[in-house]
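Try this one yourself first.
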């Protein structure tokens, strides 16, 4: 191993990697060296230190956030807002991003989550295909082919591209589809050491959906949007089969309220539902997780009986392009999650632990909202907007999602 690489490892207390040299081929050693050169070990050390610190208790002034209920708008107002949105979409200034970096592991599916299929009333439907159906419907309605950007991960990029090419993009114009890859960060063990995977490279994982801003800027996506004069971009997850991501009402409302960010919400089923909700924290828009919302606040209701903190975040966001430009170089905070991960030992044995053994670091897309004074929130109905495919069975499973999807057909 080159001296400069050995020096990097020693300076950053990662000398344990030198123990693997006897089992590496020259090609594997070269690949590992290239990886080591690219890693920001200083950042990794800071992240490791953050796992040992107790969260600082900061003064938090939490308030409800204003929202508009789609079903409480009168017809004239609804039409006015939809017409604003329709005009923008029809003029070709609208694009869609699908966050599709995940694997279907929790569903027992080998491959990218977007390649998972549901058995619907319309026959077998892949998650990617359901998205294309919505895009094609919009194509007919607005007379434009909406640009579709797909965020993959290093883990599933090649498989995703291959799948969609083999399916001929489900008859959507492939010239309007672009892929970009979200960033990764190494996993570290409880001693702050990086680990090796079966392929003898440092094990990394996607850096969370908050990495989207940097990934957009570092790819050709942002320049492509500028070239196309795209003004508004809707971002959603690949696994919500009811995602209405070409929504003139949300777009019109966001424009009318003179905001740069819009989001959709659905009502909390009950005060104890384990979901993140929209609120204002210290005067800025924020998503607060259920574990951080005091019980008495979670129970609070207004004079109409509505929960003060009842707007559930369903991962459907609308951004003005200027937001993506402004956030290109912004480093969002990383959140540590303690996970189980297999690792390679210096003797070549691969170990699958029974307990969590590594820290994974993720940034969240909504942590950027605090940089703005306000955002638009449009409340819809859960059965029309939110049917995620996350768990193999039970809530948010293929069974529940298919049932809700079929009702809309």
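Now uncover the answer:
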């Amino acid at each position: 191993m080159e001296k400069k690489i050995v020096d990097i490892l020693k300076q950053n207390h990662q000398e344990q990697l030198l123990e693997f040299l006897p089992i590496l081929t020259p090609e594997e050693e070269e690949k590992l060296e290239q990886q080591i050169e690219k890693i920001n070990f200083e950042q990794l050390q800071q992240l490791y230190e953050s796992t040992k610190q107790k969260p600082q208790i900061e003064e938090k002034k939490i308030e409800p956030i204003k929202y508009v209920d789609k079903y409480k708008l009168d017809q004239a107002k609804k039409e006015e807002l939809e017409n604003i949105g329709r005009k923008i979409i029809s003029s070709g200034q609208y694009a869609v991003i699908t966050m599709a970096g995940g694997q279907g592991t929790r569903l027992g599916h080998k491959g990218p989550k977007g390649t998972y299929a549901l058995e619907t009333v319309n026959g077998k439907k892949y998650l990617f295909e359901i998205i294309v159906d919505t895009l094609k419907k919009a194509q007919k309605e607005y007379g434009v082919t909406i640009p579709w950007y797909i965020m993959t991960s290093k883990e599933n990029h090649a498989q995703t591209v291959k799948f969609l090419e083999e399916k001929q993009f489900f008859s959507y114009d492939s010239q309007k589809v672009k892929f970009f890859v979200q960033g990764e960060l190494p996993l570290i063990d409880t001693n702050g050491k990086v680990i090796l995977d079966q392929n003898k490279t440092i094990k990394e994982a996607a850096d969370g959906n908050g990495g989207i801003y940097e990934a957009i800027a570092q790819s050709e996506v942002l320049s492509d949007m500028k070239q196309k004069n795209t003004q508004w971009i809707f971002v959603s997850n690949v696994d919500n089969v009811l995602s209405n991501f070409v929504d003139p009402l949300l777009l019109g409302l966001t424009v009318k309220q003179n905001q740069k960010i819009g989001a959709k919400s659905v009502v909390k089923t009950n005060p104890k539902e384990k979901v993140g909700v929209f609120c204002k924290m210290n005067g800025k828009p924020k998503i607060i997780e259920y574990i951080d919302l005091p019980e008495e606040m979670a129970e609070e209701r207004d004079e109409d009986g509505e929960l003060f903190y009842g707007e559930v975040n369903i991962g459907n966001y609308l951004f003005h392009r200027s937001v993506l430009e402004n956030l290109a170089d912004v480093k969002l905070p990383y959140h540590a999650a303690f996970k189980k991960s297999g690792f390679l030992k210096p003797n070549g044995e691969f170990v699958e632990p029974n307990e969590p053994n590594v820290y994974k670091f993720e940034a969240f897309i909504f942590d950027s909202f605090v940089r703005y004074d306000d955002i638009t929130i449009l409340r819809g109905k859960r059965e029309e907007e939110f049917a995620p495919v996350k768990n193999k069975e039970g809530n948010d499973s293929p069974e529940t999602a298919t049932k809700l999807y079929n009702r809309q057909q």
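Discussion: The first helix runs from residue 3 to 11. The chain is about 30% helix and 20% strand.
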